Amino acid sequence: MNAFTSSDWTAYPFATRNEKDYFGLLDVYLDAVFFPKLDPLSFAQEGHRFEYDGDILKIKWIVYNEMKWVYADHHQRIYEDIKMTLHPVTTYHHDSGGNPRDIPDLTYEDFKQFHAEHYHPTNATFMTFGNIAPERIQERFEERVLWEFSHGHKILPRDEKRLAAREEHIFHYPNQADAECYVHISVLLDRITETSKYLETSLVLSYLTDHAGSPLTQWLDEHPKVIAPSPLMGIDDSGREIRVTIGAIVANREDTESVKNDLEKFIEKLTSLQPTREEYQSLLDKLELRLLDRANGSSYPLGLEYMLTMIGHAMHDGDITASLDLSWATTKLSERVANPEFWSANIDRIWNNNAHYVINIHLPDPAMNERESQREQSYINQVETMLTLEEKNGIIEQSKKLKQLQETKESLDVLPTLT
Fold first, then answer.
1. Measuring CA to CA, how many Å separate 360 from each of 47, 82, 130, 222?
2. Which of 192, 238, 195 lies closest to 83, judged by CA?
3. Per-residue pLDDT tens digits for 230-272
């Protein structure tokens, strides 16, 4: 049993080899997902709340602390900045886990409304894998969930509003002053459901970055001002449209401008490269092997790997069946690479003729953590000055109820047991 969240979906997978346990777990998950209690005290405990520690007002929350821990990883922070600049309008502008700066703005009423709008069968995709007849499982869906709902409004992420011109941003991240800097060039491309374009992009990135002798990897390794290629380089297919990022870790902040210029010149000259037929074939063989050998190429169980492969197409009205068998696409790709214009056309499509192209430079800032702590305290002080006596008493009363709830032993008899 698990749950995990991507940029525009949350999955609730479970698995067992016992049929009785399977239907028991299915009932638990269907009830928890579609008919949760959404108790205000649970929101206060899991989400966020104000609480007095003596006379001092503090913010306490599980999710907030989790996300502060996530943002302590500067690669995760940089990734969110890149995503934000590539997506000025759509849902991907925001961190789906919640930026610690914004989490306190979520109210209990907002939380309930979001669940009512989004956690509806119209917006759900049910995926099963195994040897139980699908009809039996679908009957359970109907009995436990579907009959309770009328047809809802399907919510789909929108295509991003395209940038009119290239942009450049400078960000800071918390670290000592002499820590490394980062230079990234990121672009937004086609929808993830456009399989042919996705595979073409994957082939180009593989040729440029697959190993130490690949052109971009070697260029970054040999650049005198670059420490190493960025760990954020690659294709990101976690949203509606494909994101591609290349970049470098730079030792000194005064070198970031020259590395950026050199990287752009490198991109401009990529059209002069021409992979050989043998190199293309090697890349195609690796791609086909990765697509076919899902069981050994993933850390997930095979069924879950298939589901994760399909989910992007399911969420964005793609061809779910075709996403499992891409032999047709790789065959066509093999034919297209024979065209002498294939390479230069894709370099132009991905970078040279793409206005949705963003440069992000990240510099270390030793005072950033302190400023963020001060901003949090300033927010708490502002809230406290606006609290009425009744609201202050409400906070104290909520804390008492929450403490009582936490100390109450739950009855294990209500939980389903596994055989």
1. 32, 7, 45, 22
2. 238
3. 999 999 999 999 999 999 999 999 999 999 999 999 999 999 9
